[in-house]
Amino acid sequence: MTTPQKELLAGTQRALLHRIAVAQAEGRAPSLVAAVVRDGRAVWHGGRTCVDGHAPDENVQYRIGSITKTFTAVLVLRLREEGLLDLGDPLEKHLPGTGAGEATVAELLAHTAGLAAESPGPWWERTPGSLRPELSDVLGEQPLLHPVGRRHHYSNPGYTLLGALVEKLRGEPWEDVLRREVLEPLGLKRTSGRPRAPHAGGWAVHPWADAMLPEPAEDLGRMAPAGQLWSTTGDLSRFAAFLIKGDDRVLSAETVREMRTPAAPAESADVVDGVTYGLGLQIQHRHGRLLAGHSGSLPGFLASLFFSVADDVAAVVLANCTSGPLLSAVAADLVHIVADAEPRIPEPWRPMAEVDRSVLELAGQWYWGTHAFGLRLTADGLLSLEPLSGNGRRSRFRANGDGTWTGLEGYYAGELLRAVRRPDGGVSHLDLGSFVFARQPYDEEAPVPGGVDSEGWRGIG
Questions:
Q1: 16, 31, 80, 203: which has the highest count of C-beta atoms within 10 A?
Q2: Would you say residue 204 has pLDDT above 80?
Q3: CA distance 367 to 85
Q4: 370-395: string of b/e by CB count within 10 Å (b at 16+)?
Q5: What are the residues whose beta carbons fall under 8 Å from the beta carbon of 255, sequence distance 6 or more?
Q6: With contact defined as beta carbons under 8 Å apart, do 30 and 50 qualify?
Q7: Between the CA atoms of 311, 317, 323 and 329, what dihedral angle is there, to the nearest 10 degrees?
Q8: Model's pTM, two decimal places?
Q9: Residue 101, SS3?
Q10: 14-50: per-residue pLDDT in tens?
Q11: How many helices (DSSP H) and strands (DSSP E) are in the chain?
Q12: How many CB atoms neighbour CB 355 within 10 A?
């Protein structure tokens, strides 16, 4: 048996430290802290600061801005898991009278509800939340800027509505629900709505001079579900581990997988940049890897949390400056450093516990027309269909218990696969959403739509 490596190699740790040191120095951040998570636990912490002495560690709070939205999304999806709402429900069904009630819960989660990006002035991030005591103060007179569901347009007021939805269905304040249902079960003891010592102070760094100005730390009031929280790299490491694998005390693995599935139509520029949005999570393609997570900013603070499910590696980076280092790029680089320097060691291959001969009979090569596919029975009980050459439609299929299988992804998501048998019990062909897959290209013995020419295959002469 191979023993999992718990600690990072010295060379990997130095590369991580070098990356955050460059980010802090070139980004002119008063301080910057980071952590890397692998196999469900933090395996590295690092910090840099302009102040002589001990750099901030994994227990020092920073404001995390819009990473708060991911926490709010978790609360909403808990309501869905309990059957208290459906993602297709219009907001009006549960929270009437907002003026944005035609938008669905899913559209609010994915920022496709057509709402404005910000609340009406003054600048909500630098002014007291008491200036916006009601939802109408957050939304303004014309909350919708775009047709509902047509485009991705990031909206802070949209997550204010989701926080209000949580409060309506739970009957208590958003932060109280968050503490009981997410923070306490996951052991996030240093995450809170208001700063708790030790915490960093927020600073603005002059763009043309090496000088600093303190930033105010306002209570955001109604806007809290969009950006209020303070946290640490220690707590966010645990939260990242949860977002990778789920935790049945909070959300199932299936639901956190749904969170990181694209749910918003991408703008042309987003396609080029390789970014999109799921349900409370940003999704990006960097260094050849698919990353999910969220960035955040408020005056005086920057934050980023991103992870690669395939590598089971996550990174958290926090800084106390209004602008400076691009932390989403830093987090992606930290994931890249670890995943490339110390690639994940796969679990030992093991055969299936038992083999269903009627399913095993389906495995092997199949043809849709002249396109060759391989159908494989995997140890997790799924069927996997893949083209044997080049790119093409591929999917895994889950057994339905009645001899049929349902596609889980791609073109065949939700489509039904069934084996059609001859009178003698042998398999004639596969029917996949009306497509006939036969053992030979245009098999004469299979019911190929349009029939097969009686003279068969021939040359040019």
A1: 16
A2: yes
A3: 43
A4: eeebebebeeeeebbbeeeeeeebbb
A5: 77, 80, 81, 246
A6: yes
A7: -20
A8: 0.92
A9: coil
A10: 999 999 999 999 999 999 999 999 999 999 999 999 9
A11: 14, 19
A12: 10
